[in-house]
Amino acid sequence: MKEPAPKVASAAAAEDVAGYPTQWVLASKYEEMTGVTREAVKQRKKSGVWKEGLQVAVISRRLYVNLKAADQWINDQLSKRRPA
Fold first, then answer.
1. Is the backbone of residue 15 left (phi > 0), alpha (psi -120 to 50) or beta?
2. What's the gap between Cα 70 and its chain centre?
3. Could you read off the pLDDT of 9-35 as tens digits, one per residue?
4. What number of other Cβ atoms are within 10 A of residue 3's Cβ?
5. Integer Cα distance of 2 and 9 in angstroms
6. CA 39 to chain CA mean position, Å
7. Long-range contacts: 69-77, Cβ < 8 Å, 24+?
């Protein structure tokens, strides 16, 4: 009997192979998932809009984005908007 194929990470679900939700992804994966470029992420970090250790992290010279914190930041921005 053939074994089922292992679960593959899905960009939409942002899950790792073990099936656990992934909180941190490389900025390149974040760009693939959302369309927000790596340069935009770097600029948000540089300008202080996104905080090191909260929305972004640099480990071994690789830029990571925290999906949950980035999503929360977006929701916060939406709640600050006022109707025209």
1. beta
2. 6
3. 344 445 554 455 679 999 999 999 999
4. 5
5. 21
6. 14
7. 70/30
β-strands 24-26, 56-59: how paired? unpaired
Q: What is the DSSP annotation of the chain?
A: -PPPPPPPP-TTTTB-TTSPBP-EEEHHHHHHHH---HHHHHHHHHTTSS-BTTTEEEETTEEEEEHHHHHHHHHHHHHH----
List the 24-26 sheet strands across, edge first: 24-26, 62-66, 56-59
Where exactly are the structural domains of the chain?
24-80
Query: Taking the model in full, what pTM does it have?
Result: 0.71
Would you state the structure tokens that stand for residue 32, as one six-digit string? Answer: 């693939």
